[in-house]
């Protein structure tokens, strides 16, 4: 048993427009080796590992955070369309003004004492997840002249196997900053669209929160075993 | 004109729900500011209840919403530490990396497999310190089957790392006969083999780029 390799939508490791890759991206191509039990197994028992779930980021402190309340929901699937249950989905993000609670974020936007921007949820038997948060703001960064990151939510997924581990970002539809963002642009078109959530009236709740739908697709299991001598592709 | 949301015409699909686009979600970097959202106190201690692993000094205590993990008992096996640094292509320590490890128990079984140690999950997470250093407390894994020497799978995440870097850590003197390591060009194998720094302390640096670049795997 093994998992598929990365498909055509995968970004390169070295993408010089994203400056930090220039000294941090490996220069050797990654070595292709057969997947063993190390790669086809993965951690379970997420609550024992990390403690309780924190699916509502707007109720972690004394009062409501500033900004627009949103619901983000969707499914975690594999590339064959099968639900991936019991997947830990961790989230971290800036506040409505575009500032992280992190001590090294020096952007001159206000902190929000009622918003940490960290959460954790686990997918159900159908692969569904749902969390409530605040729509994050855009913020400037030092990558290039007049660089601004589009609004985004970071997502970390611990799928069924070490081979399916994924860290990614969710972007919002109709954000003009996506086209100038080298991190998003490292993903070739049209695959970049896989990172854009969809506004959804069926997720939106009257008088309470706007809703977005975002499905995350992990690698699927291969139908045929990996050939041992097929390592030079 | 009346507006009825039930009659609305949705805009074009742009995400992974579009059958024409459906496929693996691409990776994106963790960025520089993940330390409050991902590492948790105790995440780097796979055998005890210390608070190794996170860097709570990087955000206010009031915002520390993540919990200590709760081990259910003492795992079997020899307790070891693995330590080292993460370095970039200039040889500069990377103070904003995160490492994850995944390993078998003392009998070479992964958590969830039949007969595996119920007190050992085998997964850990650690942020690097200002000097690029990382540290895990775990057990020495057993050999896995007959052709895989004791090893620990490692993932590296950091600002500038768009795609998770997957590698392995082997133990000097115990790595002979490993089927995966034997596929690594001989002159680069040392980048995957930890050396015994002191009793039960194993040391290995991960070099993201350059002459001593760690071997990373295409998974």
TrEMBL record, chain A:
<dbReference type="InterPro" id="IPR015889">
    <property type="entry name" value="Intradiol_dOase_core"/>
</dbReference>
<dbReference type="GO" id="GO:0018578">
    <property type="term" value="F:protocatechuate 3,4-dioxygenase activity"/>
</dbReference>
<dbReference type="InterPro" id="IPR012785">
    <property type="entry name" value="Protocat_dOase_b"/>
</dbReference>
<protein>
    <submittedName>
        <fullName>Protocatechuate 3,4-dioxygenase subunit beta</fullName>
        <ecNumber>1.13.11.3</ecNumber>
    </submittedName>
</protein>
<dbReference type="InterPro" id="IPR050770">
    <property type="entry name" value="Intradiol_RC_Dioxygenase"/>
</dbReference>
<dbReference type="InterPro" id="IPR000627">
    <property type="entry name" value="Intradiol_dOase_C"/>
</dbReference>
<feature type="domain" description="Intradiol ring-cleavage dioxygenases">
    <location>
        <begin position="72"/>
        <end position="100"/>
    </location>
</feature>
<keyword id="KW-0223">Dioxygenase</keyword>
<dbReference type="Pfam" id="PF00775">
    <property type="entry name" value="Dioxygenase_C"/>
</dbReference>
<dbReference type="GO" id="GO:0008199">
    <property type="term" value="F:ferric iron binding"/>
</dbReference>
<comment type="similarity">
    <text>Belongs to the intradiol ring-cleavage dioxygenase family.</text>
</comment>
<keyword id="KW-0560">Oxidoreductase</keyword>
<feature type="region of interest" description="Disordered">
    <location>
        <begin position="1"/>
        <end position="46"/>
    </location>
</feature>
<dbReference type="GO" id="GO:0019619">
    <property type="term" value="P:3,4-dihydroxybenzoate catabolic process"/>
</dbReference>
TrEMBL record, chain B:
<dbReference type="InterPro" id="IPR015889">
    <property type="entry name" value="Intradiol_dOase_core"/>
</dbReference>
<dbReference type="InterPro" id="IPR012786">
    <property type="entry name" value="Protocat_dOase_a"/>
</dbReference>
<dbReference type="GO" id="GO:0018578">
    <property type="term" value="F:protocatechuate 3,4-dioxygenase activity"/>
</dbReference>
<protein>
    <submittedName>
        <fullName>Protocatechuate 3,4-dioxygenase subunit alpha</fullName>
        <ecNumber>1.13.11.3</ecNumber>
    </submittedName>
</protein>
<dbReference type="InterPro" id="IPR000627">
    <property type="entry name" value="Intradiol_dOase_C"/>
</dbReference>
<keyword id="KW-0223">Dioxygenase</keyword>
<comment type="similarity">
    <text>Belongs to the intradiol ring-cleavage dioxygenase family.</text>
</comment>
<dbReference type="Pfam" id="PF00775">
    <property type="entry name" value="Dioxygenase_C"/>
</dbReference>
<keyword id="KW-0560">Oxidoreductase</keyword>
<dbReference type="GO" id="GO:0008199">
    <property type="term" value="F:ferric iron binding"/>
</dbReference>
<feature type="region of interest" description="Disordered">
    <location>
        <begin position="1"/>
        <end position="26"/>
    </location>
</feature>
<dbReference type="InterPro" id="IPR050770">
    <property type="entry name" value="Intradiol_RC_Dioxygenase"/>
</dbReference>
<feature type="domain" description="Intradiol ring-cleavage dioxygenases">
    <location>
        <begin position="82"/>
        <end position="110"/>
    </location>
</feature>
<feature type="compositionally biased region" description="Basic and acidic residues">
    <location>
        <begin position="1"/>
        <end position="16"/>
    </location>
</feature>
